[in-house]
């Protein structure tokens, strides 16, 4: 006996009345001692494990459907099905079942479905002893037939008997002939009765009847009967839709006639279920379970037949990627694939696995890459849907493809960059496509679904996570952040000023669609901060990304300002000292505090989010940030008393300062920590060490003094490029950027360049420390201290500190020269 004859799939019906695939194996019928009887055994073809062991019970009703299916119930809510690869195997097992139950193998159902209560209820009824007698199939009997069909629906036994009677007498075909007579005679009453009869027969839920009703010969007349619902004033025109409006498109001619017939049949039956039949009530929901199964098994068969025809699929792929293919044809090919992938969702996991592997082998990803870059919106949209099926199925497969591709092609045409560009260029005002693509990108860069083990075959000794993230940050990250950097650049600022943009805005995109796009990009970057550790850390510090993101705190779109704030909050939430030092040296709390002060007394989400950020720093006691905030911004914030956050920060700061001073009393001065109250000299020593080190260890990770124990790869490779750019800008930016006017008394400048950040060289630069001291003509000691702090604080706003050899002279000039004194008012 050949293996394929006995090859079966085991299905069980779940609570949602959907069939679950339990596996593929080989079936046999043998006597099992433990069960004391002949049983059906299915052993898995993969490992020989037992998938099914079911005793053939003499009283169980087994049904044979569609020549290759055997269905039965083991318990009240436990339905099983065996789907055979070959009809011969199904017939063989069916004979064994009939033999045990003493039935003729020609029957389709081995038992009547009876339970005891039903048996008692109907034993007096004369028709239970034999099949139901059907009235003659004539026009004047239609009302009687309709009453009979609707009356049996409440009783399982009578439903069974009516189904057998209808089947044995070829009754359905006779009814459909009467339908044609009624329609010709315009006999509305008869047509209404036929609607009730055909609907009732569908609710009998019998696969054998469905096969007759949904055959090519009968299906259109069945649809015709269902047009004449008595509840409607005018009949529907379903047949007209199915024959004239719905067009069957063959992208490549399908030569297999059985496959064509299956596709037509499935479409029409799905139409009957979804469009024609009313939504079943709670009491009727199980009436159509067999109809759902009928469609389900049809779809499985269609996908399997197409998948096995590699010549057909190869031809589809060839035409899809051929430049000579015209746009209409290509649109149809892509829509075919979209439909094909949607059908594949009916497959069980292992079959779906095989399906997508077939597509991958044939080259679905390179084909998608070409199609996603096309101008036709419909084609791009369908290609995105197909891409989403592939990413959902196997992100690793997509990642492997793009990494291999990177070795042979430019960054511009990499699949992930094509996806990012589609996201950026989405023309939909609501960015529907961009949101979908952002979700797919997030799945692809999510380390949670990356293989943790080393991929020996491709990257000996390296994990998928490290390989893919290195690839992504080297080849794709610049494409993702391009719109963000372009919209927060100083060039953009200058252009905005030329066309007369709002001078009080440092740069923010006022266009709603751009703001939405930037919000999506920020959401993705925030995800990276949380999941990518040192890759994103290097990127943020090398590109000074947080400073650029915080420009968006000025946006008139509050949702965008909140996205920028959320990005910073996620960074601070990591409690990473490298990030904290980057924030304090860059003076990056400035734009956040400006936004809080600009927001005034409004009690809104922005207000709450900013306060939550500072509350987190207080509760978690992040000392370096606490010191920075209190030393530089406390005067501006002390008036905020409706929350205790800022007073709490001051208290924490003072407690820590006391602790430090107690410790320092017993420590030699050269070892003292300068973490809290730093004066200008101490800071300069730090700067000197930082940059001496930078010169000595060029190309290595730069680590500030006192942090040598941290892993080197945890910090940016080099700040040199960044500093060169800063110095170049220093000579260009003679004046600071335009200031926003503020209703509040306190206002800071959010500097974008080295000259703006250096308080000593910028006449417009403002600092809280300087503002809090009244400007007076006499050189009082309090003023001196205050101005010294001012220089220190504003110098700290550089990401890399520059060592100024003549710093001492500058300080003296600060004290004497009114030209260089920071001003209170703009």
Notes on the structure:
With 826 residues, this protein is an alpha+beta fold. The chain has a 7-stranded antiparallel β-sheet, with helices on one face. A hairpin with a 5-residue loop joins strand 1 and strand 2. Helix 18 packs antiparallel against helix 19 (432-444), helix 19 packs parallel to helix 23 (512-531) and helix 29 (605-620) runs parallel beside helix 31. The protein is elongated.
Spans of at least 5 consecutive residues whose pLDDT stays below 50 are 114-129, 493-507, 680-684, 690-727, 729-826
What integer value in Å does the Rg equal? 38 Å
Q: Helix tally?
A: 37
- Main-sheet strand order equals 4-3-2-1-7-6-5
- Total beta strands: 7
Mean pLDDT over the residues: 76
Helix content: 55-70%
The first-to-last residue Cα distance is 96 Å
Name the structural class: alpha+beta
Overall 3D form:
elongated
β-sheet strand percentage: 5-15%
| Main beta sheet | 7 strands, antiparallel
InterPro entries: ARM-type_fold, EVH1_PP4R3, P4R3-like_central_dom, PH-like_dom_sf, PP4R3-like
Pfam families: EVH1_PP4R3 (PF22972), PP4R3 (PF04802)
Biased composition (Acidic residues): 686-700, 804-815
Organism: Phascolarctos cinereus (Koala)
């Amino acid at each position: 006996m050949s293996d394929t004859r006995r090859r079966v799939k085991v299905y069980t019906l779940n609570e949602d009345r959907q069939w679950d695939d339990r596996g593929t194996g080989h079936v046999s019928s043998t006597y099992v001692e433990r069960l004391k009887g002949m049983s059906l055994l299915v052993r898995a073809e993969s490992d020989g494990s037992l998938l099914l062991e079911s005793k053939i019970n003499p009283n169980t009703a087994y049904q044979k459907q569609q020549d290759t299916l055997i269905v039965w119930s083991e318990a009240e809510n436990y339905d099983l099905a065996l789907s055979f690869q070959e009809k011969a195997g199904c017939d063989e097992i069916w004979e064994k079942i009939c033999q045990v139950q003493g039935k003729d193998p020609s029957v389709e159902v081995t038992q009547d479905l009876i339970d005891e209560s039903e048996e008692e209820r109907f034993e007096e009824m004369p028709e239970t002893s034999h099949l139901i007698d059907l009235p003659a199939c004539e026009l004047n009997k239609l009302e009687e037939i309709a009453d009979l069909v609707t009356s049996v629906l409440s009783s399982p036994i009578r439903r069974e008997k009516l189904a057998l009677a209808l089947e044995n007498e070829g009754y359905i075909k006779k009814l459909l002939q009467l339908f044609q007579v009624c329609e010709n005679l315009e006999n509305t009453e008869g047509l209404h009765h036929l609607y009730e009869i055909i609907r009732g027969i569908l609710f009998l839920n019998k696969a054998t009847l469905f096969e007759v009703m949904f055959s090519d010969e009968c299906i259109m007349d069945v649809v015709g009967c269902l047009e004449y619902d008595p509840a409607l004033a005018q009949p529907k025109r379903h047949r007209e839709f199915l024959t004239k409006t719905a067009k069957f498109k063959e992208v490549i001619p399908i030569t297999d006639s059985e496959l064509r017939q299956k596709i037509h049949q499935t479409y029409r039956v799905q139409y009957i279920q979804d469009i024609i039949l009313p939504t079943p009530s709670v009491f009727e929901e199980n009436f159509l379970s067999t109809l759902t199964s009928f469609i389900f098994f049809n779809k499985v068969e269609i996908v399997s037949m197409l998948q096995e025809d590699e010549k057909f699929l190869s031809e589809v792929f060839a035409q899809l990627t051929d430049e000579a293919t015209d746009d209409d044809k290509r649109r149809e090919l892509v829509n075919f694939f979209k439909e094909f992938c949607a059908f594949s969702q009916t497959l069980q996991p292992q079959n779906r696995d095989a399906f997508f592997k077939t597509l991958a082998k044939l080259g679905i990803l390179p084909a998608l890459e070409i199609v996603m870059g096309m101008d036709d919106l419909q084609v791009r949209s369908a290609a995105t849907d197909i891409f989403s099926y592939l990413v959902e199925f196997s992100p690793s497969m997509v990642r492997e493809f793009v990494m291999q591709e990177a070795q042979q092609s430019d960054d511009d045409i990499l699949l992930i960059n094509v996806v990012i560009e589609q996201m950026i260029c989405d023309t939909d005002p609501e960015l529907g496509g961009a949101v979908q693509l952002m979700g797919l990108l997030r799945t692809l860069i999510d380390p949670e679904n990356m293989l943790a083990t080393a991929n020996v075959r491709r990257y000996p000794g390296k994990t998928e996570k490290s390989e893919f993230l290195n690839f992504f940050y080297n080849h794709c990250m610049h494409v993702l952040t391009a719109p963000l950097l372009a919209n927060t650049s100083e060039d953009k600022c200058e252009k905005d000023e030329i066309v007369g943009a709002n001078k009080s805005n440092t740069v923010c995109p006022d266009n709603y669609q751009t703001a939405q796009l930037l919000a999506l990009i920020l959401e993705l970057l925030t995800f990276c901060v949380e999941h990518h550790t040192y890759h994103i850390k290097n990127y943020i510090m090398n590109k000074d990304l947080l400073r650029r993101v915080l420009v968006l705190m000025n946006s008139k779109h509050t949702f965008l300002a909140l996205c920028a704030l959320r990005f910073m909050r996620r960074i601070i939430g990591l409690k990473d000292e490298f990030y904290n030092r980057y924030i304090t040296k860059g003076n990056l709390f400035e734009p956040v505090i400006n936004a809080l002060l600009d927001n005034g007394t409004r009690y809104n989400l922005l207000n709450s989010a900013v306060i939550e950020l500072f509350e987190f720093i207080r509760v978690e006691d992040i000392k370096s940030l606490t010191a920075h905030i209190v030393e530089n911004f406390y005067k501006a914030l002390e008036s905020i008393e409706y929350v205790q956050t800022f007073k709490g920060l001051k208290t924490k700061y003072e407690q820590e300062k006391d602790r430090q001073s107690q410790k320092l009393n017993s420590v030699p001065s050269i070892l003292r920590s300068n973490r809290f109250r730093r004066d200008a000299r101490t800071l300069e020593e730090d700067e000197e060490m930082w940059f001496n080190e930078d010169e000595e260890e060029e190309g290595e990770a730069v680590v500030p003094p006192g942090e040598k124990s941290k892993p080197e790869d945890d910090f940016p490779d080099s700040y040199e490029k960044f500093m060169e750019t800063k110095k170049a800008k220093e000579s260009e930016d003679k004046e600071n950027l335009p200031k926003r006017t503020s209703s509040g008394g306190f206002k800071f400048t959010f500097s974008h360049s080295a000259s703006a950040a250096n308080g000593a060289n910028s006449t417009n630069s403002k600092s809280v420390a300087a503002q809090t001291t009244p400007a007076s003509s006499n050189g009082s000691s309090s003023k001196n201290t205050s101005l010294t702090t001012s220089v220190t604080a504003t110098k700290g706003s550089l990401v890399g500190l520059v060592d100024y050899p003549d710093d001492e002279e500058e300080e003296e000039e600060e004290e004497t020269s009114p030209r260089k004194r920071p001003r209170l008012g703009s």
